[in-house]
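Re-running the complex after MR caught last week's input typo. The corrected sequence lines follow. Everything else is unchanged.
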Amino acid sequence: DVKVTQSSRYLVKRTGEKVFLECVQDMDHENMFWYRQDPGLGLRLIYFSYDVKMKEKGDIPEGYSVSREKKERFSLILESASTNQTSMYLCASSLTGMYGYTFGSGTRLTVV
Amino acid sequence: AQKITQTQPGMFVQEKEAVTLDCTYDTSDPSYGLFWYKQPSSGEMIFLIYQGSYDQQNATEGRYSLNFQKARKSANLVISASQLGDSAMYFCAMREGGGLTGGGNKLTFGTGTQLKVEL
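Corrected-run output:
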């Protein structure tokens, strides 16, 4: 019954490493999103995509890039991980229109 | 300016009591939707309730209701008969009615309220 799957629940990476966070949805949703969640700051949008190969910057895109080659998969890339990117990363998908999101279970990334 | 404001970082409520979690929002778009999500300690985000800007009645879903006051731009979540399992972080979010890009397809979240239900 899992609808949005994030590849890792916990991840530990070293500073400077290239990090890939993968997200797959099986609901044929057009829209996919990456958020990071930090205590006291809520969820902040990093990037979103409203179609294959289409992407838009969110509120905090610096240090991140994304890839959407297939409708069901949306990847978040940290080109050179830094300790300030230690956070919980949440992927979500939705239909177009006034709909809510379906979230993945999150990836807790620690950069050491 | 903050689009979604949740002014209560933490709340306590006794089991079986009702509790109100505050949310105010800011938008000039006449078409928008307001959402509440629950995040237990396990981390998953659970959708609770939705209110559209044109809805005439306040939304209800079981023990959850949304006190929607459009003129005041508030969308408070009311949980009746609190249970221990209601202990979680609660997020208010808004989706504005723009096009495919920009605001039309993304949710803006508040900073959340941590609710603790006590015996």
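None of the earlier attempt is carried over here. Chain A touches chain B through 28 residues (CB under 8 Å). The longest strand of chain A covers residues 42-51.
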